[in-house]
Amino acid sequence: MIPYTVNIKLAARTLTGTVHLQNKTAVDWGWQGLIAQGCHSSILIVDPKTSQTIQVLERHKANVVKVKWSRENYHHSLSSPYSLRLASADAAGKIIVWDVVSGTAHCEIQEHTKPIQDMDWLWAQDASRDLLLAVHPPNYIVLWNGDTGTKLWKKSYAENILSFSFDPFDPSNLALLTSEGIVFITDFSHSKPPGSAGKKVYIASPHASPAHTKPVAAAPAPTGAKKALNKVKVLITNEKPSAEAVTLNDCLQLSYLPSKRNHMLLLYPREILILDLELSQTVGVVAIERSGVPFIQAVPCAQRDALYCLHENGCITLRVCRSTAPSPDEAGQNTDPEQSAQELVYDLRSQCDAIRVTKTVRPYRIVICPINENRAALVVSDGRVMLWELKAHPLKSSANPSSGLSPLYSPVAFCGTPLAPNQKHISDLSLNTMIGHSLLSGVEPARPSGQQEVSLKFQLTGLLSGLPLPPFALRMCPPLTTKNINHYQPLLAVGTGNGSVLVYNLTSGLLHKELSVHSCEVRGIEWISLTSFLSFATSAPNNLGLVRNELQHVDLPTGRCFAFRGDRGNDEPAIEMIKVSHLKQYLVVVFKDKPLELWDVRTGTLLREMAKNFPTVTALEWSPSHNLKSLKKKQMAAREAMARQTVSDAEQSSVESSVISMLQDAESKSEMGQSISAREHFVFTDTDGQVYHITVEGNTVKDGARIPPDGSMGSIACIAWKGDTLVLGDVDGNLNFWDLKARLSRAVPTHRGWVKKIRFAPGKGNQKLLVMYTDGAEVWDTKEVQMVSSLRVGRNVSYRILDIDWCTSDKVVLASDDGCIRVLEMAMKSASYRMDEQDLTDPVWCPYLLLPRAALTLKAFLLLQPWSGTFTMDITQVDYNEKDEIKGLIQEQLNSLSNDIKSVLQDPELNLLQRCLLVSRLFGDESDLQFWTVASHYLQSFSQARQLSVPDADGQSKAEGSPAGPATHLDICHDTLCESAFFQRFQLERVHLQEVKRSSYEHTKKCADQLLLLGQTDRAVQLLLETSADNPSYYCDSLKACLVTTITSSGPSQSTIKLVATNMIANGKLAEGVQLLCLIDKAVDACRYLQTYGEWNRAAWLAKVRLNPAESSDVLKRWAEHLCSPQVNQKSKAILVLLTLGCFHKVGEMLLSMRYFDRAALFVEACLKYGVMEANDTTNKLIGAAFSEYARLLRSVGMREGAALWASKAGGAGEELLEELFQKEATEAEPERGPDEEQGGLLVNIE
C-alpha cells in the first residue's frame, strides 16, 4: 500500500454569530480595502470583494465598541511599508493597536475603565502617522501614540463628549458633539492640548423653535417639507435653549462634509441638516415625510457632494446634491430666480432593498469604501454583513421630466484623462467615474458630446452570514483515517436553537450546508457515516412533563431527512441522549423516565425496548472493542474453502489470486449489504453508581458483569472509553481513570463541579481527554493522568462554554454563549492566526498581506507595464530575482485581480497618468491617489495651454500660472487647489445661498463682508442698507454703504483709504482692513497682510477669488514655502499647491529631496510626455537624478530589468548603475550560458 502522508491542517479560527448591541458602532472600511467589524470581544477582518472573513483578532476581554483602520495618506517605501494597522477599543476602556497580518498587538492602551466613546487616527500627513485621538468618558479627550502606547496629552471639557469629527480640510479644526450641543476647537495640534475650552454652540432641536418660523405673505400654504425648512432657519444659537428644547436634542451624528470646506452635517432621526459653518446657518435639509422611515446614520462622500443614508428598515439610500444650474428645458420658462438657489437639495438617486426587521434583527451601521465610494457594507445585528455595490446603468431616452430630477451624466474621462476612442475602461470604478460634477450656475449646462445619461442602482454583490443565537450542540464528523483519506472533509455539525443544523467545512470556515431539520431546539447530533448523521430535538414539556421527541436521520449530499423512529415520539418522556456504537451499527436512545431503546442503525429497526424494571441510566458509552476482524477472518476462510472446491487443483495456482480478489470484493459488498453483524458492548451506570455491561450481537442482547459503585465517586454524569482506558466523571467534579488491562482505578478530584461531558481525542494511541464543566473546560492526558490545559470563565475568558468536541487529534472546538464557535489549539488559548497561513477558498487582492518588498515590487510591476514592449500579468516573464515562494505570492495577488482590471492594465491605450491613478486606487494609497489626481489634471491643462501659446526664449511658457480651461475641472473637494474661475463661481454661489438663508443681523453682516471681498459691491450695498434704525451699527453700516458706492480711483482717496486700512490692521482689526483694501483693488496687499498675520488659508482663498493669475501665483508660492517650513511640515500639501501653479520643475526637485523616488521618476516622465518639461541643460540634472534613483530603488527590490530600463533613460547619471547591472548579469549568467547572449538580451530590453 502507498504510504499516505496527509495533513488536514485546520487553522485555529472563530466562527462568529450575532453582534452585541455594544458592537453597533464598531465597524470600519479602511483604505486598505478591508472591513473590520467588532463581534462581542473579537474583531473580524472581512474582504468585501470575495466576502470572506480572513482574520479574527482576539485579545479584548470586553465588547469591542470602536474599530479604526489607520490612514494610508503617506508615501509608501521600504521604510514605511504597506501594512495593515488597526486600532480597536472596548467597553472596558482598553485600546489595542493591531498588526492585522500576524494577528498580534503592537501596543495596549488603558486610561479609565469606561467604554471609549470615539477614536480616530490623526490625518495631518507629514506629522507622525501613529497618533490616535480617543474620547474617554465622560469628558476627556486624550492623544496617544499608537505605536508605543504613550500618552501625549489629555484635556477635559465641561460636558459629556459623545463623539467628534475632524475637519478634512484643516487639521487644526475639531468638532465635539456633546450632550448639550457642539464644541468647536480651532487650535487642535498634536504637540499640545487645545488651549481654550472651544466655542460652544447649542443646537435647538428642529421642532422646538416655533419662534423662528417666518410668516410667508400671500404664498400658497407651505407643505410639510417647507414648514420644516422654515423651522430650521436658525438652529444654532450661542445661548442655551429653553428647557423643553434641550430635552429634544436628539442629534444622532455630526460629521464635516469631505466634499466642500466648512460644511457640516447634523443627523436627526427625521432630517439631515447641512450647515455652513461660516454663517453657523442651515443651508440644506433632507427631511423625511411623515410616513417615511427614520434615519440611523448618514455617510457623506468626498468625491461628489452626496450622502449615503441608512434607514431603520435597513434600506440604504444615495442622495446627490442637485445641480444649481437650471436644466435647459427649465431655463426657457421664467422660473422664480429666488427659487433657483433656495438651498442645497439632495435628491434621492438610488435605494437598495430593505431587510425584514424583527426584535433580534435590526440594521446597525453602514460603512462606505473610502477609495471608490461606490460600495457600501451594512452590518445587521444577527451577524450578517450585506455588501451592496452601486452600478451606473446607461439610459436610452431622457429621464421622464415628471420625476423632476435633473439627469445625471457619466464623465467622459477615465482616471482623470479623456478616453481614447477604443480604450477599455471600467465605468463603475468609483463614484466620480460614474457620475459627473454637479454643475454650477453660470456654467453652460450644454451636454458635452459623448456623455451618457445614467441612472444608479444598488446591487447586492456579497453576503456574509453568522451563526444564529446560541444554544449550540456540536459534533465533529468521524475522524480522518487511511481509508477515507481521498474524500474526507472536516465537517462540523452545529445544532441550533431554532431546529436547524448548520454544517461547516473547517478548512475554509465556510458554511457547507444549512438544513432545516427540526421544529424545536436541537439537543444532540451523532454522525453515522462521513455523510449522514442523526440528530434529536425535544419540544417544551406539557403539564404532565411529556414532550414531543424528534429523532431525524439526515443524508448530507441529498439533504433528505426522515423520522428515524417512525411515528413514535409524541407525548413521551424527553430523550436525554443518543449514542451510536463504534462500528455505526447500533444506536441507544436514553429517555428521562423511561427505559432505553436499542435500534439497528443500518436497517432502522427497533431491536429491543427494555423492560419497565430496567435501571435508570445516568451515563452510557459504547466500547471500542468488537469482533469484526475475527468474523471477517472466519468468513474469508469459509469462502476460500468454497473456492478451492469449485476449482480443480491443477488450475488452482493460476486462478486462486483472482478468485480470492473476486471473493474479497463480494465480501466487502456483502458487508455493505449488512449481512455481517459484529458483536459490540456498551457500559452504563445507574443512579447508585453501579456499572452494567451489556453485549449486543445481531438482535440478541446479553447482560454481562456488574461492577459495584466506587465509594469515592458521587452520581456518575458521563463516561468515555478508548482502548484500555475508561474514564468516569461525576456531578461533584471527580474523574475516575480505569486501566482495564492492569485492572487499576484512580480517582482524581478536580474541584470544578459537575463534569458535563468527556470526550477522547481521535487518532490511534492518542489518549488525550477533553472535559467540560459548567465553568469551562480542561484537557487531560489519561496516560500520565495529569491536566494539560485549562480554560475558566472569568479568569481566562469572558464567555461561558456551551458544548465541546475534538475536531482533529490536536485541536478542540468550543461553542460559547457569546454566539461564537472557536477552533483552538489543545492549549485552548484563544489566539488570532497569521493571515498568510490560511488557505482561503477565493484568493484575496490585498497587497498589504505581502512582505514590504514584495508589495513595492508588485506596485512597480503594474506601473511599469509594458515590460520590454509586451504587456503581461505574469511576474515570471520579468527579470526579477527573488525567492520563488515570494514570487508565487505576488503572482497569486496578480491572479486575484478581476478580469476587467487586468484587461484595462494590459490595454496599450492606457496612458501613464491613468495607470498611476488606477494603481493607486488598487493599492488604496491615499497619498498617491491625491497626488496623481491633481498632477494629472494640471499636467493636461498646462500642456493644452502650452500648445496654444508660443514659448518665449526662456523655454518657460508665458502661460505659467494660467492653465487653459480644460474639458473638466477638479472637484470642489480639492478646495483651493481648484482652478480660480471655478473656485470663484462656487464661492459666489455659496454667498448667494447664505444670503437667501440669513435670518439675523449677524448673518446679514457676514454676507455683506463676503460680497465685498468677492467684489460684488452692488449687492453688498443693498444688504448694508437693510440694517434697521434701532440697531447700534445702523450709522456705521449706512456710512459704509455710502463709502462703497462713492469710491473712485482718484489718487488721494485711494491713499487715504490705504492708510486707514493699514492702521486698522496694525490695531488688530484685520478683517476690516482687508475689506477696505479689497474695495480699492489692493487685494494683493490684503493677501500679504493676511499671510503676515498667519491667516494662510484665508489669503489663499482671497487670492483665488480676487487676483489675476500672476499675482495669485506669488501669493500661493509664498503659502507653499510656508507649508514646507519645519514648524508646519506639510510638504505634501505644498507639492499639491505648486502643481496647481505649474511649477513642475520645483515639484520634481521636492519629490526627490523627500526621497519619493518612484513618484518623482514617474512624474518627470509624465511631464516629458506632456511636453510641459523639456530636456535641456536646466532640467537634465533633475531628469537624471530622478530616473537613476528610481533605477536604484528597483534594483534594491530585485527588478533588474526595470532598473536597466530607467538607468538607460537617465543618461549620464545612470551609466555607472548600468555597468554594475551588466557585471552582475555577466557573473550570474556564466554558469548557464555565455555572457554575450545574456548581455545581448538585456540590450534589447533597454532599447
What is the structure about, briefly put?
The protein is an alpha+beta fold and 1247 residues long. It is 27% helix and 28% strand. The radius of gyration is 38 Å and the shape is elongated.
Keywords for this entry:
1247 residues, alpha+beta, 5-stranded antiparallel beta sheet, 28 helices, elongated, disordered N terminus, disordered C terminus
Structural classification: alpha+beta
Give the overall form. Answer: elongated
Mean pLDDT over the full residue set? 82
Distance between the termini: 59 Å
Largest sheet: 5 strands, antiparallel
Strand percentage: 25-35%
Count of helical stretches: 28
Low-pLDDT windows of residues: 1-7, 207-234, 241-248, 326-340, 441-446, 951-966, 1230-1247
Strand order of the largest sheet: 14-15-16-17-18
C-alpha Rg (nearest Å): 38 Å
Q: How many distinct beta strands? A: 60
Helix content: 25-40%
Subcellular location: Cytoplasm, Cytoskeleton, Cilium axoneme; Cytoplasm, Cytoskeleton, Cilium basal body; Cytoplasmic vesicle; Golgi apparatus, trans-Golgi network
Domain WDR11 second beta-propeller: 489-829
Keywords: Cell projection, Cytoplasm, Cytoplasmic vesicle, Cytoskeleton, Golgi apparatus, Nucleus, Phosphoprotein, Repeat, WD repeat
Pfam families: Beta-prop_WDR11_1st, Beta-prop_WDR11_2nd, TPR_WDR11
